[in-house]
């Protein structure tokens, strides 16, 4: 007896359909286990020891632990420093970004000309590293004490990679 699959009337027997299911199951398990199609291991990018950030990152932010670092050549160059970040409804965006611009004497147009010394802008919406009180939530920026903000300002350049986790 020959059965058809209903697709292009290709003949099939029960064994072929069973083999396809087994192959699909093996491929699915392999991918879930982190094995690529060629049988090679699929690895996450290397992270810098002590941080959640990839080796190629220049500035790293850990929102959960209120810390930030400068990284050079896969090694911590400065930090961790204590930070504050956006509060409820004004969360600091997470992801990978790049430094857009710097302004040592920036004043906020959004918040009544409030000073934002040592501002390093890296995310849409005016999100920046800058000097500020690390004890209270910000409106989305990453704030840190003055000496740390100045070090970040001096250490970062446009197009440097910033990761926020």
Automatic annotation (TrEMBL):
The pathway noted for it is:
Cell wall biogenesis; peptidoglycan biosynthesis
Q: Which domain of life is it from?
A: Bacteria
Q: Which Pfam families does this one have?
A: YkuD
Domain named L,D-TPase catalytic: residues: 57-165
Give a Gene Ontology cellular component term annotated to this protein.
Answer: extracellular region
Q: Name one GO molecular function term.
A: transferase activity
Keyword Ligase found:
no
Which keywords describe this protein according to UniProt? Answer: Cell shape, Cell wall biogenesis/degradation, Peptidoglycan synthesis, Transferase
PANTHER family attached to this UniProt entry: EXPORTED PROTEIN, L,D-TRANSPEPTIDASE
Instruction: Please give the name of this protein.
Output: L,D-transpeptidase-like protein
Q: Which organism is it from?
A: Pseudonocardia sediminis
